[in-house]
Amino acid sequence: MTSVPDIGFDYRPSRWPQALLLALGVLALLALWISALGPALAVLASVMLIHYVRVSLRRARDRSVRSVIWRSDGGWRLVLGDGTEAEARLAGERVLAGVIVLRLDWDPRQEATLALFPDNLAAETRRRLRMRLSASTHMP
User: Fold this and answer.
1) Who wins on pLDDT, 96 or 51?
2) Do the Cβ atoms of 49 and 29 come closer than 8 Å?
3) Cβ contact 86:78 at 8 Å
């Protein structure tokens, strides 16, 4: 696949999972208060739920990876949040309901999971990425 051009894109987290998480958090909070829990347990569970949603939203906004290049030789180059570059490897990939999920790792114990939704990846780049992923997973 040496004739395949590089695929590069800037990565920013999608707003879709964040909005879904917030909506589910509000619904869970409402469910706590209309359930048969006593007021003390409802307050405790609400505090725990709000903390969980805040931590999850912070993780969903993580910018540890700023840009990605999948080179024609099959290597991955990342520009990290602090501006440094790293050579990475594709540890896993999935396409779930139209969302491309890439798991990249570099260094001994650093990894990132990038969820590529239609709102954070251009349609042409998305198409090229899906085609190349499909071709690379079927190669011997």
Assistant:
1) 51
2) yes
3) yes
**1-5, 105-109, 126-130: segment of lowest average pLDDT:** 1-5
d(CA 116, CA 21): 17
CB 87 within 8 Å of CB 79: no
The pLDDT of residue 138 is above 70: no
Residue 51 has pLDDT above 80, yes or no: yes
| Model confidence, pTM | 0.77
Cα–Cα–Cα angle for 36, 42, 45, nearest 5°?
Answer: 125
Q: Mind giving me the DSSP string for 51-116?
A: HHHHHHHHHHT--SEEEEEE-TTS-EEEEETTS-EEEEEEEEEEEETTEEEEEEEETTTEEEEEEE
